[in-house]
Specification:
- By secondary structure, this protein is mainly α.
- The chain has one domain (2-118).
- Helix content is 88%, strand content 0%.
- The protein is built from 5 helices and no strands.
- It has helices spanning 2-24, 30-33, 35-58, 62-89, 93-118.
- The two termini are 13 Å apart.
């Protein structure tokens, strides 16, 4: 269960750091081409990240924490697949591999959380 908590917190923090870095360095050209779409995309990724961090590090009630973590894993799975499509379209295979690894971690975490509920 520790892996689920810590990996979720780290992934959440890295998601926020990634978007801050991309925005500060001006590496989000979609602000010019598709501003509404990218705003929604960034918003759901930030919400996912906050949920993962909150559930991992702040929430103290076990059943609520596990429920929020499971929900967060589902959100993470969606954002990873959605983001992977963008990078696959542009041929950036290193990012695609990173998203594949994140999806594997999300699935692993989900399975662990389901197993925990059975006990």
């Amino acid at each position: 269960m520790k892996f689920v908590k810590y990996s979720s917190a780290v992934i959440g923090m890295l998601m926020i750091m990634q978007w801050v870095f991309f925005i500060v360095t001006g590496n989000v050209p979609e602000f010019e081409t598709t501003p509404v779409s990218i705003a929604f995309h960034i918003s759901i990724e930030i919400i996912t990240a906050i949920l993962l961090i909150f559930a991992s590090l702040i929430c103290k009630k076990r059943i609520i924490r596990e429920t929020l973590l499971l929900y967060g894993q589902g959100m993470l799975g969606y954002t990873v697949i959605n983001s992977a499509g963008y990078f696959a379209q542009s041929g950036q295979w290193v990012f695609l591999a990173m998203f594949a690894l994140l999806l594997v971690i999300s699935i692993f975490n989900s399975v662990q959380l389901f197993k925990q509920r059975e006990h």
